[in-house]
Amino acid sequence: MTKLYQQLRDDHKNLVKVLDVLEREIALYDVREETGSEKPDVLLILDIMDYIQHYPERFHHPLEEAAFDYLNEHNLGNAEEIAAIRAEHKDIEAGSSKIRTLIDSINLGEAVSLDSLHSALTQFHIDQLEHLRKEERTVFKDIHALDDSASEDILGRIEHRQDPLFAEAATQQFEALLKYLEHR
Ligand SMILES: [Fe+2]
Ligand SMILES: [Fe+2]
Q: How far is it, in rounded angstroms, from Cα 105 to Cα 123?
């Protein structure tokens, strides 16, 4: 398995995990009025929102899109499928900002109906999972078929795009979150 494919698969696994924890934490808002009930961990929710919003946008989607560029350049994979998946990245990024705005409003004490948060989150969760599954059924097969030199080429394409200081700080923050979730 190439480094590229391993990275993309790990990204998907981690995303599924954090989405699951986020949904469970948000569900605790429903029962927060009851005495003795577990309170939602607001800091954890915000950390996860940060992950969901920034990790795909800054790391996962650019890496996938570099792989899509490579596939397109070499006439590999299905160009139409690839274009549709690229378009979904924009929709997912818009969906995550919408949820972030709702959570920020709740934490500022504004009146936001839990129903609207739940439906936005449920929709986001469904869209995100569908997107991951679709990729795994389609383009991931073409990416899996690439050799190590293609993998290095693609990884090299995004490395220079990152501000190294930002990338290091963000990576440390995201790794800390994933580690925390492992021991929970
Ligand atoms: Fe994607
Ligand atoms: Fe993906």
A: 19
Residue 85: the pLDDT is 97
Mean pLDDT of 80-107: 89
Taken in order of first residue, the domains within the chain and their CATH numbers are 3-182 (1.20.120)
What is the torsional sign of CA 6, 11, 12, 16?
positive
- What span, in angstroms and rounded, lies between the C-alpha atoms of 82 and 88? 10
φ/ψ of 49, rounded to 5, equals -60, -35
Q: Rounded to the nearest whole angstrom, what is the distance from the C-alpha of residue 169 to the centroid of ligand 2? A: 22
Note the ligand closest to the C-alpha atom of 8.
Answer: 2
The pTM of the full predicted model, rounded to 2 decimals, is: 0.87
Q: Is the pLDDT of residue 31 over 80?
A: no
Reduced DSSP (H G I as helix, E B as strand, rest coil) percent helix, strand, coil of the chain, to 5: 80, 0, 20
C-alpha 23 – ligand 2 centre gap (Å)? 20
